Amino acid sequence: MAARRDSSILAGLACAVFILLCSVSEVSSNREGRKFVTFTVATDETDGFKRFMRSADKYNIQVQVLGMHQEWLGGDVQNNIGGGQKVLLLKEALKKYKDDKDLVIMFSDSYDVIITAEKEEILRKFDDFNARVVFGAEGFCWPDRTLADLYPEVRLGKPYLNSGGFIGYASELYQIVSHTSIQNQHDDQLYYTRIFLNPELREKFKMKLDHTSEIFQNMNGAGADLTLKFDDDKTRLRNRVYNTEPCIIHGNGPQKLVLNHIGNYVADSWSFDECHSCKENTFSLKTYKRDDYPVVVIGLFIEQPTPFVPEFLNKIYNLDYPKNKIVLFIHNHEEHHAGDVQEFVKNYGGDYKAVREVTPSMNMNQWYARKQGLSECIGVKCDYYLSVDADVQITNPKTLQILIQQNRSVIAPMATKYGKLWSNFWGAIGDDGFYARSDDYIDIVQGTKKGVWNVPYINNVYLIHGSLLQQPKTMPNFIVGQLDADMAFCASLREKGIFMYVTNMDTFGRLTTTTSYSTEHLHPDMWQMYDNRPDWEEKYIHADFYKMLDPKTEVEMPCPDVYWFPIVTETFCKHLVEEMENYGEWSAGKNEDQRLPSGYENVPTVDIHMRQVGFEKEWLTILKDYVCKLQLKVFPGYFSPAQAIMNFVVRYHPQEQPFLRPHHDSSTFTINLALNKAGVDFEGGGCRFLRYNCSVTNTKMGWLLMHPGRLTHYHEGLPTTNGTRYIMISFVDP
Ligand SMILES: *[C@@H]1O[C@H](CO)[C@@H](O)[C@H](O)[C@H]1NC(C)=O
Ligand SMILES: *[C@@H]1O[C@H](CO)[C@@H](O)[C@H](O)[C@H]1NC(C)=O
Ligand SMILES: *[C@@H]1O[C@H](CO)[C@@H](O)[C@H](O)[C@H]1NC(C)=O
């Protein structure tokens, strides 16, 4: 041992001189003079290959890639035996080193491997084996289980050889790879196993297995043994069972997705301070002229009745991106939304490079439609394809630019459902092929960990790099067996070794919940306050409402103790009136009223109660969550239980009921919400408070008047002289 160290120091000196003479040496030497070469075999530059090379680079390990862009003849190694081609390529590469007894060669697969240590650590651990050749080990005897009995007994660790990674001296390794003939489609692991299981050869080549994952961690069957050890400097994978920190992580077999998860962290990818990998290979569109922006096809998919579809379309329109670089492909499968789409296309379609529409009457299913979307992209030689389902509200106009600049094969902006942990990605996949929660899922959803995450499943909204659509081997597929389109899409990407990322580096938008959306109503969005509050508020609560709550904002008081607030949008007013007219059963304005428990109304109006259109529960929530907050500001100290039995829309019309005689309300306070426009939709009208001889006639749509009910504010409805005036009344806390 000591003698060998000495000689290698001498060799190192010689080599240092040699390097000066021959600067492009493929053999790297460290200070101690150890010569070290790493080989891998890869025929394609898959995402996994790029990840491997990135990790090698992080740890200053130069890798010689064998077989790149050659045809792969080694069979389907994922699902079957094969890989003989790897042995043959290595044999060819090692020829020139065949007599080198000092040169250390490491071989590693690359598509499903990450390097997490520098050469010095690898060599130190290799020396500790006191072997000439060390192969990684695993718990499965593959591909020939009957060979298990021939293995030497192991006291600690995994017993069987895995050929995904090995290290050894060039002279011995060359003898091994050239020991017997092997063909491309033969199994490389079986080849090496046979040599190892031959006691004479094992002795001759001084072969050992890395049973306890000192260097090589084969993950198959060992997932539960592994844990991430976070470190500001370099996060490493730790084998808890053997108490080792392996250098070469091989996500073999079904562990590929777990390796993707680990790959989010190790090899200097991410730390709590910073996501390093997020910044790699990105670029900025700022250097582009608007006319040179990449061409994007945006596929929009309305596959079921969905809340807030006009808003969904508007947000697409609001994406900050040159419209002449965007082709819209719209698949609408719902007759219910035909009007929304038609209006959008009529108003804005002309701004885009082109719009292609598949209407409900064409009856195209979503599997085919999504495929069609990709075809449109190929047809216009797109640079990117952005797919967005109707249940995604993209609130960040920069979303498309951010995704493009991130420069990944497939990337989704994270979107979550309001108030839920539900999102558009999965952190892991269970054995059943469906959702499983990864240990970092909640941190990512809640944003306590920010990054660009390699995940096994994304949905609802994602950007695909156009280069993927140029060849079948990278083409995503929506039609796979009986799978739903989203499952098929992700399964096909996983199968093809294409990484899917989700980013939560920015806020992008949210998912709406579609389950409670009922097309029975004329304007179903009005009923969406429970499931989709942010979208509901955006659509229906007045933009100035929250400003009103600010103690610094002064509240208008047109008459003594009559307060005036903006509360709902004009859209709310319009939709409420239309719901009422659509329902149509206006009361006769008589004292007899069967809708009331008493059967009698003292001061009758022509009206429809909220309860009659099924909006009472929703209205009472508006009362509690919005109106009473305003009330507390102007009538402090009164904590309203927000009860109201009488909530109704009144219709005033010169030929019907034009006015209401003076009266008190049976309420603690009353609100009177103007639902249309004075001077535009009607003439006359307004409310007069007799005690103060004070009238409010220029009522504002979406604004409410709030005044005490039972005492002091004796009031009347002034005559509407032309047109129709609508107001909404609530007697709060009767
Ligand atoms: C995108 O990333 C790839 C590596 O995956 C890199 O080769 C390419 O230059 C990047 N594109 C841009 C425009 O920077
Ligand atoms: C009430 O106000 C109107 C104008 O605002 C005025 O003409 C009228 O005289 C007032 N009536 C009383 C009783 O003060
Ligand atoms: C009522 O309004 C309509 C249109 O706004 C107008 O044409 C008509 O002359 C008005 N009628 C009266 C009696 O003011």
From TrEMBL:
Keyword Endoplasmic reticulum among record annotations: yes
Keyword vocabulary terms for this entry: Dioxygenase, Endoplasmic reticulum, Glycoprotein, Iron, Membrane, Metal-binding, Oxidoreductase, Signal, Vitamin C
Name of the protein in question: procollagen-lysine 5-dioxygenase
Leader sequence segment: 1-29
Catalytic activity: L-lysyl-[collagen] + 2-oxoglutarate + O2 = (5R)-5-hydroxy-L-lysyl-[collagen] + succinate + CO2
UniProt keyword annotation of Hydrolase present: no
Coiled coil: none
Ranges that cross the membrane: none
Location within or outside the cell: Endoplasmic reticulum membrane; Rough endoplasmic reticulum
SUPFAM superfamilies, A to Z: Nucleotide-diphospho-sugar transferases
Cellular compartments per GO CC: endoplasmic reticulum; endoplasmic reticulum membrane; extracellular space; Golgi apparatus; rough endoplasmic reticulum
Database matches in Pfam families: 2OG-FeII_Oxy, GT_PLOD, OGFOD2-like
Reported cofactor(s): L-ascorbate; Fe(2+)
EC number: 1.14.11.4
GO MF assignments: iron ion binding; L-ascorbic acid binding; procollagen-lysine 5-dioxygenase activity
GO biological process, one term: collagen fibril organization
Domain Fe2OG dioxygenase, chain residue ranges per copy: 640-734
Matching PROSITE patterns: FE2OG_OXY, LYS_HYDROXYLASE
Membrane topology per record: Peripheral membrane protein
